[in-house]
Amino acid sequence: MSAYTVTRGAFIPAPPDQVFQHVDSFRRWTTWSPWEDLDPQMERVYTGPEEGRGAQYAWMGNRKAGSGRMEIVESVEPRSIRIRLEFLKPFRSLSPTGFTFEPQSGGTRVTWSLAGEVRGAAKLFAPFMNMDKMVGKDFEKGLARLSQVAAPR
């Protein structure tokens, strides 16, 4: 097994509760998620509550977007959100994901993290896969977009 962790953070000039609401509802992810551009025709299915614990989101997209599902497993407003992220295509992977929202002077420090292990056939490519490089820039883009929607200028 090859374990990985990806973490990025950003200061967003808005109070924690204002930022939190954009992450706690998968329906709002379409306004800031870095992966929305990968497939304009992506199919989305939302189940469970609109926000918070138990909210679920599944997607099926083109080869770039792949397919998978997410579920909010813990939501502590306005401090943290834990998500069970399961990729189905292009390869199966379970990656616990989390967000923390730390109040700071004039705004919120948001930290986005992802952890997991490369398993199965994908392990053959693990020496050539740098998850931090592959996903880190997406996290940075997503946090910048989150700042734009949570703290419009």
From TrEMBL:
A Pfam family assignment: Polyketide_cyc2
InterPro entries assigned to the protein according to its UniProt record, in alphabetical order: Polyketide_cyclase/dehydratase, START-like_dom_sf
Protein name stated in the entry: Transcriptional regulator
